[in-house]
Write a structure and sequence with these properties.
Blueprint: E1 5-10, H1 16-19, H2 22-25, E2 29-34, H3 36-44, E3 50-54, H4 55-60, E4 65-74, E5 81-85, E6 94-98, H5 103-115, E7 121-125, E8 138-142, H6 143-148, E9 156-159, H7 160-168, E10 172-179, H8 189-201, H9 203-214, H10 218-228, E11 229-230, H11 235-250, H12 266-271
Parallel strand pairs: 1-2, 1-3, 6-7, 6-8
Antiparallel strand pairs: 3-10, 4-10, 4-11, 5-8, 5-9
Helix pairs in contact: 5-7, 9-10
């Protein structure tokens, strides 16, 4: 019996279009769902062959490549990565970071340290811990949890996709399909693109199906999938990735000496 390709994806609304019917397009795929941070650990440990992982972990990985032109990204507000704060940016001295996040946790540090010149204390917010209970000045929430949250005790709600694009003028890329070193996708690579095309063409149906379980309005979910989240990894997104890696490396969050990308798109990135 042929060995299954072990693929892991996040169980968030924004990933649903990327995995819709993936198993049908690629019967050799064994798909599992988990938090982005855990997927990154599983890929690094060799427990996955392909993972929809945080881009910060792609840069930390050893010999990863990525499936071309597929990502979870935004150009402006993202709605699902929010820093709730009791105080303005300048007064933030402590932050609780969503356990599921790594790219957005690093983005929070980049914005606070590099853009605002602050050096707050960071702690982890467990996935099962209520954000309202965090005793910090600010709390970062991501994914469906962020979209449901209100946190009325926090006066400010900073959308980090909006903050990033307003600062850099570039899209923000949160996750890519990372491929472990030594894994050859071959014809299976096309399945990831077919799943994306199929999922995006049925965003309304996905939104209608997923909204009740999330406690969100179906129309809001559809607009989120169709107009807020970007699923391409084109020249603008690659430029955003380069900028993110540069700023993350400046803070020691990713290795300084690694090239910005590894894989077949390296030359295209260099030209871009």
């Amino acid at each position: 019996m042929a060995t299954k390709l072990r693929v892991g994806a996040v169980n968030y609304l924004n990933a649903k279009p990327l995995v819709e019917r993936l198993g049908e397009f690629a019967p050799d795929v064994a798909l599992s769902l988990d938090l982005p941070s855990r997927l990154a650990d599983q890929l690094a440990a060799g427990d996955l062959d392909v993972g929809l992982i945080p881009v910060v972990e792609f840069f930390r990985g050893d010999g990863y490549t990525f499936v071309p032109n597929v990502a979870i990204a935004s150009r402006g507000p993202v709605l699902s990565v929010t820093l709730f704060s009791r105080v303005p940016w300048a007064d933030i001295r402590s932050v609780a970071l969503d356990e599921g996040s790594r790219t957005s946790a690093a983005l929070t540090k980049i914005l606070l340290r590099t853009k605002h010149g602050l050096d707050p204390r960071f702690e982890q917010l467990p996935i099962d811990s209520p954000a309202e209970a965090a005793g910090t000045d600010a709390v970062l929430l991501i994914g469906d949890r962020a979209m449901r949250a209100c946190l009325p005790g926090h006066r400010y709600a900073f959308d980090l996709g909006e903050e990033w694009t307003a600062w850099t003028g570039l899209p923000m890329v949160y996750a890519v399909w990372a491929v472990r070193g030594g894994v050859e996708l071959g014809a299976t690579e096309r399945a990831f693109h077919r799943a994306k095309e199929w999922g995006l063409s049925r965003a309304g149906l996905i939104a209608q199906r997923e909204a009740p379980g999330l406690g969100l309005d179906a129309g809001f979910c559809r607009r989120y999938l169709e107009t807020v989240i970007r699923y391409d990894l084109g020249p603008a997104e690659l430029a955003g990735l380069r900028k993110y890696r540069e700023l993350a490396a400046d803070l020691g969050l990713v290795p300084e000496a690694r090239p910005p990308f590894v894989g077949r798109e390296t030359e295209a990135v260099a030209r871009g």
